[in-house]
Each structure stands twice: as structure tokens, then as C-alpha cells.
Amino acid sequence: MVRDKEATKGKLLEAALDEFAEYGIAGARVDRIAAKAGCNKAMIYAYFGSKEGLFDELLKIQIDRIIQAVPITADDLPGYAGRLFDSYADTPQLLRLAAYHRLENGFDNIPKAEAEAYHHKVAAVAQAQMEGKISAEFNASDLLDLVVHMSILAFSTPNATRELVERSVRRLIAE
Questions:
Q1: Residue 87 to residues 28, 58, 163: CA-CA distances in angstroms?
Q2: What is the pTM of this model?
Q3: Mean pLDDT, to the nearest integer, of 79-102?
Q4: Could you write out the DSSP letters of every residue in 90-137?
Q5: Alpha-carbon dihedral of residues 129, 132, 133, 138, nearest 10 degrees?
Q6: What domains are defined for the chain?
Q7: Handedness of CA 95, 98, 104, 106 (dihedral sign)
Q8: What is the pLDDT of residue 154?
Q9: Which is it for the CA torsion 128, 130, 132, 137, positive or negative?
Q10: What percent of the chain has pLDDT over 90?
């Protein structure tokens, strides 16, 4: 019987999403991931090299997904924050993965796609500020950080809504 490598990798990544989100990098267990995926744990090492390699690949995929799903719209930062809010609500595990990554690695080992996307977004915000479309009260990187963190509000505040996030960002960028 020929095994489908991509299907097996997909099952492992799917199983790993919940495992890493719940237990973090240190607490995740390859035995549980393999069992949930219905494969032998040796497949994790064959496809990803290590538990950490599996985590890194999973994080990269999730970051790429959100970058593609929610492109920056510097002319509409409230809408951008609202779309981020919705995306995080659809995949709350991403925020936990990112938090565990930061806890384990600090800010030294930021995934390349995330760093590139961040620089692109900062440039877009700076351009909108130079054109007078949004407030220049904060520098572009600080403003982007504030907008992104407001979109995460739902996960630390039980009554947060997309409307609240968008309204807050509107006030933040008002001249």
C-alpha cells in the first residue's frame, strides 16, 4: 500500500495545531499528535525532523494563512482590525501558537514571512500617514502594533466585538 505523504503531513499538522495550542512547545507530546493523526510518531521525525520542526512548520503555515486572508488596508485600518479580529476568532489557536513561540524564542527568531509582512504593513501605514489619510500622532510601527493588539482584544475581554475593535481603531487614527 502506497502512503500519501502530503495527506499524512496534513493530518499531523492538523493534530499538532490543537496539541501545541493547548500545551505549548515544551508540553506538547509527539505521541498524542501521532495518535490523533492516526500515524506512527516516526512520521513526525521523517517529515519535520523534530517536534520543534513540526511546530515551526505549523506556525509558518498559520502565519502565511492569515497574511493571505487579511491583507493590510492602511486606508481602512478599522476594517483591517475587524478582519483580523474575525480571522483570530476563526482560528484562536494561532494566537496561542504565537504566544508560545514568543515565550520560547523571544523576539530573536521571528519567522521570515511574519517579519516581511510586518515591514510591508508598516510601510503601508507610513504612506497613509504621509498622505494625511490617517493620524500621524504615533509612528507607523507603533500604530500598527496598537491596531493589531486591539484586534486581539476578544481573547482577553469576553464582551469584545468586531464593532468595538473597529470603533476603537477609528478613534485611535482620527486626526
A1: 24, 17, 14
A2: 0.85
A3: 90
A4: H-THHHHHHHHHHHHHTTSS--HHHHHHHHHHHHHHHHHHHTTSS--S
A5: 40
A6: 1-56 (1.10.10.60), 70-175 (1.10.357.10)
A7: negative
A8: 65
A9: positive
A10: 69
| Range from 15-29, 55-69, 121-135, 147-161 carrying the lowest mean pLDDT | 147-161
DSSP codes of every residue in the chain:
----HHHHHHHHHHHHHHHHHHHHHHH--HHHHHHHHTS-THHHHHHHSSHHHHHHHHHHHHHHHHHHHS---GGGHHHHHHHHHHHHHH-THHHHHHHHHHHHHTTSS--HHHHHHHHHHHHHHHHHHHTTSS--SS-HHHHHHHHHHHHTGGGT-TT--HHHHHHHHHHHH--
Tens digit of pLDDT for each residue in 106-158? 777 777 888 889 999 999 999 999 999 999 999 999 999 999 999 997 677 87
- State the residue for C-alpha cell 513540526: 54
